[in-house]
Amino acid sequence: MGRVPTIMVVDDEPKLQTTIATFLAEEHIAVLSASTNREAVAQLDNRKEDLVDLILVNRRIPGSTMTALYPVKPRAKTQEPQDAFLSKPFTKQQLMDFIKAQL
């Protein structure tokens, strides 16, 4: 059996963090949660960055009140601007499809 994937969710909405954690746990994916970017960086400093497979970061879409989750791959040597994002609200299936496409 391989290593369980780990995803970090950075979002200031505790209810959304809990919902995503529940969805991912059902799919046997470990979750780390952070409410701010600073908290996320602190957790990554305390844990080996290479244990996190994907970071989902809540960012506002420029010029809109809509928010979305953007993927960050922690082991990438350079981060290209991400065209991929998942607009809120989303279903469990949309979240899982989005994550699978990023991993």
Task: Describe what you observe in this structure.
There is one protein chain. This protein is α/β, with parallel strands linked by helices. The protein is built from three helices and five strands. The protein has helices spanning 14-26, 37-46, 92-102, and strands at residues 6-10, 30-34, 54-60, 67-72, 86-87. A five-stranded mixed beta sheet has the order 2-1-3-4-5. The mean pLDDT is 82.
Could you write a compact summary of the structure shown?
This protein is an alpha/beta fold and 103 residues long.
Helices and strands in order, then pairings?
Blueprint: E1 6-10, H1 14-26, E2 30-34, H2 37-46, E3 54-60, E4 67-72, E5 86-87, H3 92-102
Parallel strand pairs: 1-2, 1-3
Antiparallel strand pairs: 3-4, 4-5
